Fold this protein.
Amino acid sequence: MQNKNKSELNIERNLCQVNSNISKACKRANRNTDDIILCAVSKTKPLSDIETALSCGQHIFGENYVQELTSKYDVLGDKAEWHMIGHLQRNKVKYIIGKVSLIHSVDSIQLAETIEKESAKRDLVTDILLEVNIAGEDSKFGFTPESTPDAVVVISHYPHVRIRGLMTSAPYTEDPESNRLYFRDLRKLFDGIGRLNIPNVSMDILSMGMTGDYEVAVEEGSTMVRVGTGIFGARDYHI
Ligand SMILES: *Cc1c(COP(=O)(O)O)cnc(C)c1O
């Protein structure tokens, strides 16, 4: 039997707990657990934490910073699947193309255009989500809900980018219920864009829900939750 240290045991237990909470939320909403993907947000956390989660069967990891993502990728490579979830500067796109399987945080047409150019250079198609500022918060990046359908149409013409869906970070709150209507609104927008059947766009990923509110997000139709603190514990600094 392998000896596990305290942090390994915590991560293992937390992952079980989060997966079980997702299952329960699915039951309440009459959804299939297999339709929800868990992205474990490992920003600021050491490689050893990611390795522990990998050994527990967690495969997808979300990172916020290009430099941190690439240095983790240099060690683990494709043993894990990497998602970029944080605000991305256009001049840093080149460092992550071909390493990340999904960019959640595309918040402007210009950024999508840069992803197109860098992906074309490498002869790749990069999957992206458009980030929507669903609550209209000044502090957040993202398209307004009103501008999102037109942005999808423009970006759909980029051959090396494929829109897979939408992403949002709902307001920080102690009471997850207060985000329920935002999640519902984003699901409506997601379904509405899906019904347009835009060529080269597949609306199949709706990335919403974090540690404080992922169960409500699942009840409201999320297909991908991004959980950091709930798996790896509190971060040394708040992001
Ligand atoms: C940090 C972060 C998360 C995870 O937040 P937790 O509250 O720790 O679960 C999810 N999404 C984004 C975009 C983040 O920056």
Observations:
- The first strand starts at residue 37 and ends at 41.
- The mean pLDDT is 96.
- Residues 6-28 form the longest helix (23 residues).
